């Protein structure tokens, strides 16, 4: 969890630029401006930690515009040869996305005890536009710290300004298809949803600026069997919930659709019951009335702890809540020790801001449980002698990605006046991502070569056994032990 949201995307993009290391000369580059370059460098590096194992600055000022102009010119020339090539104003489409607002990026990693503090900064001196506004606006205190119970093992809170995405799609349609295309997209989004749904897409669009929260709590003391999985494969029982701000009304509408179906009864009635009180309006899984479900299915649902799974509107907060159980859903909004008071959380998130637009956290229990599951899968999948090579390779990757006694990881994203900053505490530094991407061609070739070598070895052994094992002549020593004849002896007797 070195980064969150778009910042991680940009890190991946930068990493991929080195694989393979191909040089590109960008056309129509603006003349160098030493003063502007210096100011840009200082703005980016001031957001980073000096020293450490990574301290990187990348200027991309004007690069994307130059590439867009080049692509536009190339498409113009192509249309002279192929009239069917669409007329797309690539620079205008780039402006719609807002990616042309990115002027520079910076990365840093410094050691902090048993891990690293990583920073990723995206510099947008003229402000965030288009898709760059997708991941929220102003920084706010994180609500998940009070909603999530102490001991929660995986948590995400992410502001989502999806209206920005809607606006970008509409404007992009205008660039590609003109005003007529723009009007068509707007008209399509205003159409009513198919029955029996009663709300319109326009209503959904009105509430697109929202917040997504994910909370998972794993119980390693209560291992459960996964349906249709090998009986030896078990995972910790999970309690969890997904919360979406401002969309509680959707559960109200779905409940209206469900009620007539439940009133009819019969074997085709959904296995739910209606929940309606001062706090909740929605539907809850009801195994007693689930006549269509087999006893085995009911047992599996109960073992997983999902027998009271809930989709409902939490009326006081207006949130849409999908929870593994009614009890866990109630607990989210009840007074309790919250995640912010959890010692493991405090240790993992030490030094990180508790305000922003995104937060992600994974506990040590989460990583240890994940490692145990991968180890068991590896053991079950590669339990034969001839599969030990695969087992070794899988074990190597598990040790690299999920080391024993792994610490928790967490990160926070904030929007600054002229950019986006992600700060994270992790067992891995940005150097790991960069080196891995640069070395990936070598590892790919080495892995392919090793695979080919193992395959050739297996074929050689198999071919030799098929040809000679069945009728391999053996002479017996005076002590009764088999004696393998030499190659020249085969020629003498015609074998």
Description:
The termini are far apart. A hairpin with a 5-residue loop joins β16 (474-476) and β17 (482-484). By secondary structure, the chain is α+β, with helices and mostly antiparallel strands. It has helices at residues 6-16, 34-45, 63-81, 90-97, 144-147, 162-189, 201-206, 248-264, 295-303, 326-333, 343-348, 364-381, 388-401, 430-468, 487-493; strands spanning 54-59, 104-112, 115-123, 140-141, 154-161, 209-225, 234-244, 272-276, 280-285, 310-314, 319-323, 355-356, 358-362, 409-416, 419-426, 474-476, 482-484. The chain is built from 15 helices and 17 strands. It has a 13-stranded antiparallel sheet, sandwiched between helices. The chain has a two-stranded antiparallel ribbon with strand order 4-12. Strands 16-17 form a two-stranded antiparallel sheet. The chain is 42% helix and 23% strand. α1 packs across α14 (430-468) and α4 (90-97) crosses α6 (162-189). It has a domain at 467-493.
Shape: globular
Q: Compute the number of helices.
A: 15
Q: Roughly how many Å is the radius of gyration?
A: 30 Å
Question: CA-to-CA gap between the ends?
Answer: 64 Å
Largest sheet: 13 strands, antiparallel
Furnish the topology, listing elements before pairings.
Blueprint lengths: L5 H11 L17 H12 L8 E6 L3 H19 L8 H8 L6 E9 L2 E9 L16 E2 L2 H4 L6 E8 H28 L11 H6 L2 E17 L8 E11 L3 H17 L7 E5 L3 E6 L9 H9 L6 E5 L4 E5 L2 H8 L9 H6 L6 E2 L1 E5 L1 H18 L6 H14 L7 E8 L2 E8 L3 H39 L5 E3 L5 E3 L2 H7 L2
Antiparallel strand pairs: 1-2, 2-3, 3-15, 4-12, 5-6, 5-13, 6-7, 7-11, 8-9, 9-10, 10-11, 13-14, 14-15, 16-17
């Amino acid at each position: 969890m070195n980064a969150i949201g778009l910042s991680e995307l940009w890190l991946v993009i930068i990493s991929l630029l080195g694989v393979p290391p191909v040089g590109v000369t960008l056309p129509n580059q603006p003349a160098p401006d030493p003063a502007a370059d210096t100011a840009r460098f200082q703005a980016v590096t001031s957001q980073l930690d000096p020293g450490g194992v990574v301290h990187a600055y990348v200027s991309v000022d004007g690069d994307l515009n130059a590439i867009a102009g080049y692509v536009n010119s190339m498409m113009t020339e192509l249309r002279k040869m192929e009239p069917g090539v669409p007329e797309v104003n690539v620079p205008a489409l780039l402006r719609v996305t807002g990616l042309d607002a990115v002027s520079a990026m910076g990365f840093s990693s410094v050691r902090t005890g048993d891990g690293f503090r990583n920073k990723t900064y995206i510099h947008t001196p003229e402000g965030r536009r288009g898709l760059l506004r997708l991941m929220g606006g102003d920084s706010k205190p994180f609500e998940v710290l009070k909603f999530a119970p102490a001991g929660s093992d995986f948590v995400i809170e992410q502001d989502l300004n999806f209206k920005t995405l809607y606006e970008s799609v509409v404007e992009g349609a205008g660039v590609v298809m003109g005003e007529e295309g723009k009007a068509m997209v707007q008209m399509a989004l205003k159409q009513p949803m198919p029955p029996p749904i009663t709300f319109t897409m326009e209503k959904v669009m009105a509430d697109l600026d929202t917040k997504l929260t994910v909370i998972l709590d794993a119980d390693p003391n209560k291992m459960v069997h996964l349906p249709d999985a090998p009986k030896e494969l078990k995972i910790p029982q999970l309690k969890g919930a997904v919360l979406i701000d401002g969309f509680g009304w959707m559960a109200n509408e779905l409940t209206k659709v469900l009620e007539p179906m439940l009133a009819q009864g019969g074997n085709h009635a959904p296995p739910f019951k209606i929940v309606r009180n001062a706090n909740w309006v929605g539907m809850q899984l009801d195994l007693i009335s689930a006549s269509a479900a087999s006893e085995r299915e009911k047992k599996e649902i109960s073992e997983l702890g999902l027998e009271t799974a809930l989709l409902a509107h939490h009326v006081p907060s207006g949130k849409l809540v999908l929870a593994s159980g009614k009890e866990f859903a109630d607990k989210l909004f009840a007074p309790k020790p919250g995640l912010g008071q959890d010692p493991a959380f405090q240790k993992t998130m030490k030094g990180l801001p508790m305000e922003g637009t995104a937060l992600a956290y994974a506990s040590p229990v989460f990583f240890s449980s994940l490692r145990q599951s991968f180890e068991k899968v590896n053991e079950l999948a590669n339990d034969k002698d001839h599969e030990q090579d695969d087992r070794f390779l899988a074990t190597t990757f598990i040790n690299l990605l999920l080391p024993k006694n792994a610490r928790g990881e967490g990160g926070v994203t904030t929007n600054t006046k002229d950019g986006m900053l992600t700060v994270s505490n992790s067992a891995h530094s940005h150097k790991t991502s960069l080196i891995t991407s640069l070395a990936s061609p070598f590892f790919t070739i080495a892995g392919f070569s090793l695979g080919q070598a193992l395959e050739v070895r297996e074929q050689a052994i198999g071919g030799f056994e098929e040809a000679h094992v069945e009728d391999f002549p053996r002479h017996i020593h005076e002590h009764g032990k088999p004696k393998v004849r030499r190659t020249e002896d085969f020629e003498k007797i015609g074998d």
